[in-house]
Structure to design on (1677 residues):
């Protein structure tokens, strides 16, 4: 028998690891092979939908955090909760509560996060030294790594180096990564995107946070502005926000670097995590087998294996020294922050209408990211645009 | 048995009736030429015979087979087209052998017959050329060669010479005549050039507007046209036709009776320039066109349209000169109000 | 200035202005090819047409990152299949519409022509379900069938018809007299004579298929079934951020061969456009 | 043998067979068109009719729920949805910008390159090259060249002292940018069509006009241009339809942004259907698009009828 | 002052020399026709005069102005094209007024001159039609009308009648002649039809391969061609030419001296069928083509190529008949080995 498993990675190391896990599964199920199908991330949800609507669903698949609610709402992912609970030696409760929030509804479990990756600040040590600034990690330790400190650092970095102070995630903060750009400050200021069908972008906290970002971009000119390239990894920006998997890009970069937690704000620390889970599709004809494989893949042992690339959500693994030491690129003291962030972090806002909400938000945010934008008014417009979908 | 019989043949394109009931018998071995002005239906009629155009009404017999619904290729005829229609991507040899090949003749047989036809037409040396490498006359000959290899019962030609220059046309015309004499096939030939028709035909069919105006030998048509149309169509330059009224008194003076005729016709080559004494008609030369062997005079006769006069003498009148014209009674053609020729008793008697 | 001198000056000005106009057409190609040799960091650095370091391994990585050779082949074979099928069907139908007098031909022509006014976007959704029903999702079948039978196929039919209408009829009559069947006339006479039109249709059809984007985007999901346009927009890291250096290297790989073929055949291409009825 | 003289009465005269030449032709004709016709019915006409039905329902691709809603989708698009009118406006602006620019440039290039001279092949090649280049490649490259300060275009403008705008970030400039780059991509095709048309105009016309003392401009204006009218019309129809279909270019260059400034109908349909999976709504939009394109084409063809009589 | 003077004019297209040194003087009001076989450079020469083609070498004078470098429109000439080149999108009126309009004449003036020209050419009723609504002859007339409204000093015609059918050609030819007589402009007319040349020209220029073969009045060319080429080119059907050797003995018997000539030429219309006694040449009729007024015989004479003979008598010999031919000494043309005409003392004396 063959299980089709859609993933969005084409990375050889990732696939080797996945195939290794599949190989392990054959010990108990000798006649089962698992075929990992790569669908590029950009079109992943769309193609997956086509496969499902087209009557050709995979048995299992990776799911993005922002698309899972819609899939749950449409009833196309299987509730594997009961099966997991019955699985021997599978400790469902080992998964941290906040991490499971998105994937379960009461007792029903629609997916298991295999990657729970917090957003961290990557920074260029050399540029910090050139600007005569204290290392962010040290600031964090001292509790000084606040939004003000961040803004101040960015400005000084920009002035001291022939580079931007800060780059949004992958430079896509104005396009596909708007939420990654705005949510850390909004949360740090105590705001939220939406809750219970109510838009939060026009709350004072959010307005204040966005105003700060706007000021950094257009007054301080310390954040790479829209339409410009200021790639952190090629040394054109001093700081960026990203997930730790991006550390793999660092050896090429050729400068001293480090990672630090997100800066805190008036509302304290607000770590943010991005998630991806494994789901079993309701239309598949080998659902039981698929569920068994999902369980196998996310048992403690395999989660530890995957931890080399994907930060785990199992508390037991997170606390293990193995995890802390696992990443050869990141020193242990920095990994500790990662670990903390996973446990305390909350996922980015999601919604079953996420694609429409994002599409509705996008043009209003385009208007926001202009030098002469009226921040509160624009945010109000954002809320007006998305209210119907919430 | 390659008589060709046409009975009340009609053809309509949509509402437009193009052939309006043609009856015709072509004897075995006869060379019949269709002439007529452009658009009169010559090609359409020929194509109906060939099978390239469907028949709307009437009957078409080739030999004793009714062929109305027989496919073109199965009627046993061959056609030579105005543009020659040589396949540009095939050599002369392949062009000529094409029909045989389609009919699945053996390679040897094809070879034999192509060579034979090529010899007949002196195409031996050109067999491996492509049409584009041939001159107009050679193409024409290949087109004929292609027609004869199939050994057809009937040959059809649609203006085969109209793409050639004047010189070559005279030459190829003679060749076609020679070929017909040699092979003796029944032949139908379409042209709008009446000289070609005259020189080639056993019988000429004059068409007009989808109807036959007259059928006869070239001589009959030239000497005794049935009507004004044929009279003007056959002969070049064309017959001068004028109302009898305009020249009644000169005619009467000369003793020609005009009966009930309303129109009189005189061919340019039948008008002689004579002394005032002998002259029947008199007019002023408006243009005199020198043609080498002679000259063509445009003569203005009072009350009548301009007369063309062929003058082969060396003493060419100049424009402005007054000339006197004579002709013999037998050369005067008379037509009634409908344009039909009036019986000419003197000759019938 | 004498006339010849004036003419020379005019000519030079003329050439210069053409060169200026040509820049926005030419520059993207130069830039693309040069960027294909740059490292990921250099692309964003100081712009220069000549790479500081020539990074040949981009072109190796292109093939490692995804089955690019396979995708390249997919595009080629799909485009070939579409082209051959389109030529065949459009010349058949175009021939019939131009040359055969059969009841309903005129109406049929109008009917088909209406397709020219309907963008593919309009029918893609039902076609999606049709393909699902036929069980050919994530195969190349839709990418072949839809261009052949969609508006583009109708356009090709129309072009072929226009050309056939203008072809001298006598050659076909000769074929008929020689005993060829209709199909024989079409195959042995009409087709060989319509090479310019076939070439023009082949070129537009090949390009059409080669550049097709929406259909593959909708119908293809697995990497090894991708066509080039999809593959090109797919040089992203696992999180969706573009890998510019690979993307541009791959783009060069996709564009350069076509350009070379075009350069070699450009005279024929222009001629066949000129000789075929493409001009309307 | 007597009967031979009267063919109409021979015993051998067969009755007209059923398979007359005319019937044969009809059957063959339909056989020839049948592959195209059948494919056309299945893959084009059928789907087109299906779109009409889809457009009357609310249908989410993911959940596969279908509810008949009548004309609600149309109502929603035409009266409720503010984006819709912006999309229509964008499409119209796009077409209104692209078509004249494309045609004017194509004609200018064709006039320059219709007659042979040294280097004509080189220039024709350059102007046609983008046509044979994949739209994806073209869009990707231009997206790069048009970046804010770092892009090659602005760098070049900077050397002559112009401070170029942030092309793809400002709605109006973004629209201008997609139009211009699309024109650059496609103008070669129209250029070739115009060249073909120009070459088919007998030189006599031009020479007659020159002999009569017309200047180059007068020759163009009073002779060439009117003679090109049929070609111009065809090109206009094709280009207009094409401009409404543009999807990949915008998808890749701006994704419809900024501020929906380049969100055109084709892209919007795609988005509704394949990003939001709103099949019913997308189908209604598709029908609207169909009607618009149809109307434009008919108007243009009527203009032609008027022009030719 | 509209003399036209051409001095050693040459033209090359790249390496190909097409016009190889032409000298010619055209007098004021003269009607000069260029004839010659296809490709000989007639059109090129005309276009060089018009200014549509640049001049590679030599000088061109119109009146007493050297116009080598003068723009076409400023040379004061008008041209009628073979295709007529009527603008299809303009009415007849607009077509005719086009030149005046681009020269910014006032609307009234244009109106006046167009109407005048239209009256001259009987185009009054057609002024609001489009060219496609006109017959061939009418188009031709409009083309001429367009030329005359500009009141040019010199008219140029490039095969203006070659798109018309035979009948119309004869008619339009006369019209052009009449027009020239009326307006009296210097005219240069290109044709490859020698009958047209003969009937229209004051003087004919025979071109061959970019060079002038002979210039002279039609009569001169017909009666005293300078060489075989001109002899065969002028006259229709063309002159029979055969080696003197082949007919030396009959000629000597008849008392004709051939001097050092190697080729002899006899026009078909100068050969008479006579009794055996009077006959100079004797041959067998291979084809006899009836042409209405007479017939054209193909006569095979032993040792010589086939002779064409025009026979206008009614007693047409049949194929196979032996006929005897006579001709007068003045009609015998003699040429030397290079094809140049030999001086004929008898006539000079
Ligand atoms: N396929 C057709 N459809 C409609 N009308 C046609 C068709 N073919 C010919 N006709 C019309 O039939 C008439 C006769 O045409 P046909 O070609 O037989 O004339 P023709 O005598 O051969 O003339 P020409 O000397 O110019 O060749 C013309 O009026 C022509 O317009
Ligand atoms: N633009 C050109 N480029 C190169 N060769 C040319 C050009 N125009 C004419 N020729 C050549 O010059 C020669 C004379 O051409 P021209 O048109 O003057 O002949 P013509 O006497 O008018 O012939 P026709 O009777 O066929 O019109 C021909 O060999 C032709 O091929
Ligand atoms: Mg005909
Ligand atoms: Mg010429």
């Amino acid at each position: 028998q063959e299980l089709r498993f859609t993933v969005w990675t084409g990375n050889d190391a990732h696939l080797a690891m996945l195939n290794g896990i599949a190989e392990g599964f054959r010990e108990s199920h000798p006649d089962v092979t698992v075929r990992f199908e790569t669908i590029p991330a950009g079109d992943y949800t769309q193609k997956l939908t086509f496969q499902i609507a087209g009557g050709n669903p995979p048995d299992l698949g990776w799911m993005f955090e922002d698309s899972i609610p819609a899939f749950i709402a449409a009833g196309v992912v299987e509730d594997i909760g009961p099966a997991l609970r019955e699985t021997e030696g599978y400790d469902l409760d080992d998964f941290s509560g906040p991490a499971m929030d998105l994937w379960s509804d009461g007792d029903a479990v629609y997916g298991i996060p295999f990657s729970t990756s917090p957003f961290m600040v990557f920074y260029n040590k050399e540029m910090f030294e050139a600007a005569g600034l204290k290392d962010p990690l040290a600031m964090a330790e001292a509790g000084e790594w606040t939004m003000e400190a961040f803004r101040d650092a960015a400005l000084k970095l920009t002035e001291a180096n022939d580079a931007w102070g800060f780059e949004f995630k992958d430079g896509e903060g104005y396009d596909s990564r708007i939420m990654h750009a705005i949510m850390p400050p909004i949360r740090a200021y105590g705001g939220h995107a939406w809750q219970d069908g109510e838009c939060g972008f026009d709350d004072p906290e959010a307005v204040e946070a966005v105003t700060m970002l706007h000021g950094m971009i257009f007054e301080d000119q310390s954040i790479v502005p829209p339409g410009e390239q200021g790639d952190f990894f090629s040394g054109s920006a001093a700081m960026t926000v990203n997930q730790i998997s991006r550390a793999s890009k660092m050896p090429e970069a050729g400068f001293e670097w480090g990672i630090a937690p997100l800066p805190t704000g008036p509302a304290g620390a607000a770590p943010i995590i991005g998630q991806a889970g494994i789901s079993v599709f309701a239309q598949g004809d080998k659902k039981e087998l698929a569920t068994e494989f999902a369980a196998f893949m996310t048992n403690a042992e395999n989660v530890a294996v995957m931890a080399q690339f994907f930060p785990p959500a199992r508390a037991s693994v997170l606390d293990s020294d193995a995890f802390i030491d696992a990443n050869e690129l990141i020193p242990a003291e920095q990994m500790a922050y990662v670990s903390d962030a996973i446990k305390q972090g909350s996922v980015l806002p999601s919604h079953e209408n996420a694609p429409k909400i994002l599409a509705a938000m996008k043009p209003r945010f385009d208007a926001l990211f202009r030098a002469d934008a009226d921040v509160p008014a624009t945010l109000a417009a954002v809320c007006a645009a998305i209210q119907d979908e919430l | 048995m390659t008589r060709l019989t046409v009975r009340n043949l009609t053809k309509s394109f949509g509402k437009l009736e193009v052939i309006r009931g043609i009856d015709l018998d072509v004897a075995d071995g006869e060379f019949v030429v269709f002439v007529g002005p452009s658009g009169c239906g010559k090609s359409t009629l020929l194509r109906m015979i060939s099978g390239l155009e469907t028949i709307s009404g009437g009957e078409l017999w080739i030999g004793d087979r009714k062929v109305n619904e027989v496919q073109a290729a199965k009627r046993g005829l061959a056609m030579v087209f105005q543009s020659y229609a040589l396949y540009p991507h095939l050599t002369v040899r392949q062009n000529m052998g094409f029909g045989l090949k389609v009919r699945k003749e053996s390679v040897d047989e094809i070879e034999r017959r192509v060579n034979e036809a090529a010899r007949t037409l002196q195409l031996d040396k050109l067999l491996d050329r492509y049409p584009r490498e041939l001159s107009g006359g050679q193409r024409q000959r290949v087109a004929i060669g292609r027609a004869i290899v199939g050994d057809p019962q009937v040959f059809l030609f649609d203006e085969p010479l109209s793409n050639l220059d004047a010189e070559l046309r005279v030459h190829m015309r003679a060749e076609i005549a020679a070929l017909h004499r040699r092979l003796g096939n029944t032949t139908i030939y379409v042209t709008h050039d009446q000289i070609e028709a005259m020189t080639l035909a056993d019988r000429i069919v004059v068409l007009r507007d989808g109807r036959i105006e007259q059928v006869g030998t070239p001589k009959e048509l030239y000497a005794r046209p049935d009507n004004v149309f044929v009279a003007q169509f056959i002969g070049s330059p064309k017959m001068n036709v004028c109302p009898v009224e305009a020249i009644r008194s000169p005619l009467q003076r000369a003793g020609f009776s005009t009966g009930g005729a309303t129109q009189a016709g005189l061919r340019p080559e039948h008008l002689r320039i004579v002394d005032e004494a002998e002259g029947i008609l008199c007019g002023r030369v408006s243009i005199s066109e020198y043609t080498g062997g002679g000259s063509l005079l445009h003569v203005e006769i009072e009350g009548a349209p301009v007369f063309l006069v062929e003058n082969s003498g060396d003493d060419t009148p100049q424009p402005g000169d007054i000339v006197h014209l004579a002709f013999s009674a037998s050369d005067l053609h008379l037509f009634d109000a409908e344009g039909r020729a009036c019986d000419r008793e003197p000759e019938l008697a | 200035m004498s006339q010849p001198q004036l003419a020379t000056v005019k000519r030079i000005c003329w050439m210069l202005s053409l060169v200026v106009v040509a820049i926005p057409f030419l520059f993207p190609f130069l830039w693309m090819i040069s960027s294909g040799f740059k490292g990921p960091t250099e692309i964003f650095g100081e712009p220069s047409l000549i790479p500081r370091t020539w990074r040949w391994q981009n072109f190796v990585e292109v093939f490692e990152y995804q089955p690019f050779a396979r995708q390249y082949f997919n595009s080629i074979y799909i485009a070939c299949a579409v082209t051959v099928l389109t030529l065949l069907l459009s010349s058949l139908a175009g021939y019939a519409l131009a040359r055969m007098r059969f009841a309903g031909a005129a109406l049929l022509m109008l009917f088909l022509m209406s397709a020219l006014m309907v963008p593919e976007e309009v029918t893609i959704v039902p076609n999606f379900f049709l393909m699902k029903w036929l069980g050919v999702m994530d195969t190349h079948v839709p990418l072949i069938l839809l261009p052949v039978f969609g508006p583009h196929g109708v356009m090709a039919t129309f072009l072929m018809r226009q050309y056939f209408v203008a072809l001298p009829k006598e050659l076909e009559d000769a074929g008929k007299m020689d005993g060829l069947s209709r199909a024989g006339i079409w195959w042995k006479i009409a087709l060989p004579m319509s090479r310019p039109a076939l070439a023009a249709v082949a070129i537009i059809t090949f390009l059409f298929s080669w550049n097709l984007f929406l259909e593959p985007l909708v119908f293809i999901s697995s990497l090894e079934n991708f066509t080039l346009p999809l593959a090109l927009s797919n040089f992203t890291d696992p999180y969706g951020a573009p890998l510019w250096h690979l993307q541009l290297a791959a783009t060069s790989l996709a564009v350069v061969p076509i350009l070379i073929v075009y350069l070699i055949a450009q005279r024929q291409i222009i001629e066949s456009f000129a000789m075929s009825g493409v001009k309307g | 043998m007597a009967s031979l003289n009267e063919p109409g009465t021979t015993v051998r005269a067969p009755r007209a067979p059923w398979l007359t030449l005319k019937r044969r032709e009809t059957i063959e004709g339909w056989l020839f068109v049948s592959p195209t016709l059948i494919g056309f019915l299945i893959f084009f006409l059928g789907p087109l009719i299906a779109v009409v039905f889809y457009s009357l329902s609310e249908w989410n691709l993911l959940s596969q729920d279908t509810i008949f809603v009548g004309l609600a989708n149309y109502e929603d698009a035409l009266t409720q949805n503010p984006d819709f009118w912006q999309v229509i406006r964008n499409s119209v602006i796009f077409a209104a910008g692209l078509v004249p620019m494309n045609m004017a440039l194509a004609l200018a290039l064709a006039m320059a390159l219709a007659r042979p001279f040294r280097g004509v092949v080189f220039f024709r090649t350059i102007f046609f090259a983008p046509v044979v280049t994949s739209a994806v490649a073209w869009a990707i490259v231009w997206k790069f060249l048009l970046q804010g300060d770092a892009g090659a275009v602005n760098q070049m403008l900077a050397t002559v002292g112009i401070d170029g705008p942030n092309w793809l970030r400002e709605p109006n400039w973004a629209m201008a940018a997609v139009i211009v780059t699309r024109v650059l991509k496609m103008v070669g095709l129209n250029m070739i069509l115009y060249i073909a048309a120009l070459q088919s105009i007998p030189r006599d016309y031009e020479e007659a006009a020159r002999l009569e003392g017309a200047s180059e401009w007068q020759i163009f204006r009073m002779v060439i241009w009117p003679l090109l009218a049929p070609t111009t019309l065809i090109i206009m129809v094709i280009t207009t339809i094409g401009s409404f279909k543009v999807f990949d270019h915008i998808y890749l260059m701006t994704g419809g942004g900024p501020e929906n400034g380049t969100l055109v109908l084709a892209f919007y349909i795609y988005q509704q259907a394949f990003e939001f999976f709103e099949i019913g709504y997308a189908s209604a939009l598709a029908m609207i698009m169909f009607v618009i394109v149809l109307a434009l084409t008919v108007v243009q063809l009527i203009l032609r009828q008027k022009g030719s009589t």
Q: What stands out?
A: The mean pLDDT of chain E is 88. Chains E and A do not touch (no CB pair under 8 Å). The pocket of adenosine-5'-triphosphate (ligand 2) is lined by residues E 13, 16, 18, 36, 38-44, 192 (CB under 6 Å). Chain E has two domains: 2-223, 237-335.
